[in-house]
Amino acid sequence: MIRLEHISWQAGGRVILADVCVSIPADTYAVLMGATGCGKTSLLEILCGLRRATTGRVLLDGRDVTALEPRERGIGYVPQDLALFPGLRVREQIAFAPRLRGLPAAEIDTRVNRLAEQFGIAPLLDRLPDALSGGEKQRVALARALAARPKLLLLDEPLSALDEHTREEAAALLQTVRQEHGLTVLHVTHSRSEAELLGQMRLRLDAGRLEVECAS
Question: In a designed cystine with 55, which of 8, 38, 86, 141 is the match (CB 3.0 to 4.6 A)?
């Protein structure tokens, strides 16, 4: 469960987020909409610890994580640019977080291979990011985010760079991933159709304030 309590954030004297309060139940696929520059990415960064709120608290499964570092929050984050490491092959990308946590090599290999099979990227394990298509990069980024076995997955415009056919396949994959991994997902998008297709809970950020449009 995600709970944001009175989150505010300012930049350059401008209020970006104003007293944001919301609860997203566990195992829910929530979609956040809003205009460009309204603070959607900033809210994701506050959730995962990359940005500190001016005021307010972040609680995950009832635990106050406001002061914790990103690696201590148990969150998988896929930014809009995917942020793949240019010098690492696909298998190294997926293994990155488990290796940082000091897992045994055999366990890391097993985890990498399972995720690669699930995401259909096993034939790509020895490729560098420059040799991947947009859809392949997206799958690698998702597999990397899940390799640490997070309870919460944050997705910033994950389908925006894909063509229509690939977008439909990726949306179906996201639904499957949430169910199989028991995730709570918060997905940022500009697309109303995308939100209606995926969102069990739809949120809108406008003028710094968050509203719940729909909660099934």
Answer: 8
